[in-house]
Amino acid sequence: MTVVRQIFPLWRDSSVSCMRNNHRISSLLCDPQEGYLQSLEVSNLYLYDSVLMLANAFYRKLEDRKWHSMASLNCIRKSTKPWNGGWSMLETIQKGRITGLTGIMDFMDNGSNSHVQFEILGTSFSETFGKDIKRSTSFSLLSSAAQEEINVANCNFHPAMETNVETCC
């Protein structure tokens, strides 16, 4: 079995990093006054970062004079027309960049987070050594050569895992 999982590698400046379950997490989570943050799962961290990215986009749009001239939405009336500001808001989100609980979050032209990194683990079993897990390689979305080499199209996503893990046959 081959496993592709998302990793959170160490930052170059080790004085501002924090480790949990052998994964680097934002130094914001290391503050002892914020102990409840230590128990958050990775999916919750991404949810927090997504809301932070959206709030950042709204803030930037509110600074834009054109944004104020758009008609407001009224969701109660049945004759409500589509909101014309949607595409503009999407572009603002895609151009955004924040540092959240999972690290830096921004988007490439294809819509993926450019700072996401993955590692490929291979498992084997032998009667002599038992079950063995080896790290085959790691790659990020920034390296397009790695994307071409690694085909993970036929993988099944397992949302119940603590980290984003996909298994491939």
UniProtKB/TrEMBL annotation:
It is found in: Membrane. Keywords: Membrane, Receptor, Transmembrane, Transmembrane helix. It comes from the Eukaryota. GO terms for cellular component: membrane. SUPFAM superfamilies: Periplasmic binding protein-like I (SSF53822). Gene3D superfamilies: 3.40.50.2300. This is Glutamate receptor ionotropic, delta-1. Residues 21-123 form the Receptor ligand binding region domain.
